[in-house]
Write a structure and sequence with these properties.
11 strands, three-stranded antiparallel β-sheet
Length: 344
């Protein structure tokens, strides 16, 4: 009897230990759970391959409303920093959504100098620690080495580009299973030539582009870029790119005009482009920038209605419109002469 009791006890203990050891879905704990992503070129066309399958990025910028993203045909998001990344990664993984993790390198326009070796080393080491912490998570698609770090920088920025390249090189030593992407604010002012010269370890170029997005990828190719591209931010014409009222206020397009812009520019710069591996529309959610509606693809609030831009991207991703489309805004017209109409 003692022997039988001991046997039952051992079996029960092993079963309980086995249950306790099972990892929760979306919360990977070891290297076996990592994801393999690589860039390959087939017949002159670049593509991502994720766990052995071709993967085209149907993405957005933002971390909220992922259920809506999946329902409308999206498959990927990007973040701007790695701060509190784990909950975002876990939630994305449960929905089979990939994540480009942003590593926020400080900007020279905010007073930081990449001519200072001590600052550069500290900055790189900070982000390498994030890569080590997160690299086994299966939701991660790529590592974004900075976002618009060059924007507003003055003078020779050679050391900045070299520092970002060094970061990419060391990231790939820690996590060789995923590519790196360098994200810049447009490609004017000769910056692409500097990247080509000083950033050989960058796998993918990310371009944030608004008013000129429809020609962005073609311009990159014309400037000699022959590596993969992702359009990492695009949307309506920016508030800095539009006409102004007599008192200097930028004139915001309505939501229907914005939706048409997302649609037309996506098909001009992303669709069927041999260098382009996908894109991230901006912004999946809402933010205050110039106005509270300029860039958001949803109205404000946790339950804010989606706007026409989300419908447009759904069609771009799936080839069909949502069953219940957003209202379209038409300019009012009066049928007949208007000269004799009284005010009111």
């Amino acid at each position: 009897m003692i022997s039988l009791h001991l046997t039952a006890f051992v079996i029960l203990t092993l079963l309980l230990l086995g249950c306790a050891a099972a990892p929760q879905s979306g919360a990977p704990t070891n290297a076996a759970s990592s994801t393999l992503v690589r860039v390959e070129k087939v017949d002159g066309t670049f593509r991502l391959v994720r766990n052995g399958q071709p993967y085209f990025i149907r993405g957005v910028g933002g971390t909220q409303r992922l259920d809506d993203l999946v329902a409308l045909g999206g498959n990927s998001i990007r973040t701007w920093s790695s701060y509190q990344a784990e909950p975002v990664l876990d939630r994305a993984h449960k929905l089979n959504v990939s994540v480009t993790v942003g590593l926020w390198f400080k900007h020279p326009r905010h007073g930081y100098s990449y001519d200072d070796p001590a600052f550069v080393r500290k900055e790189i080491d900070t982000h390498l620690a994030d890569v080590r912490r997160l690299k086994h998570h299966p939701a991660i698609l790529m590592w974004a080495v900075g976002n618009e770090v060059e924007l507003g920088a003055q003078g020779d920025q050679t050391n900045m580009w070299r520092a970002l390249n060094q970061a990419a090189k060391e990231i790939k030593q820690i996590d060789p299973s995923r590519p790196t992407i360098l994200i810049v604010a447009e490609i004017f002012d000769g910056k692409l030539a500097q990247i080509l010269q000083h950033c050989p370890d960058i796998d993918i170029l990310g371009i944030n582009s608004y008013g000129s997005m429809d020609t962005s990828t073609a311009r990159a190719r014309a400037q000699g870029w022959d590596r993969p591209i992702a359009v990492t931010e695009f949307g309506p014409r920016g508030w800095w790119e539009v006409a102004k009222t007599a008192w200097g206020a930028p004139i915001e397009p309505n939501s229907t005009d914005k939706a048409d812009t997302y649609f037309s520019r996506y098909f001009a710069a992303v669709n069927d482009n041999p260098l382009v591996i996908g894109s991230f529309a901006f912004l999946w959610g809402q933010k205050q920038e110039c106005t509270h509606t300029w860039f958001g693809m949803f109205l404000p609030g946790a339950e804010g209605s989606r706007l026409g831009a989300a419908d447009a991207m759904s069609f771009a991703w799936t080839g069909r419109w949502p069953a219940n489309r957003c209202p379209r805004i038409w300019d009012p017209r009066i049928d007949g002469p208007t000269d004799d109409l009284a005010p009111g």
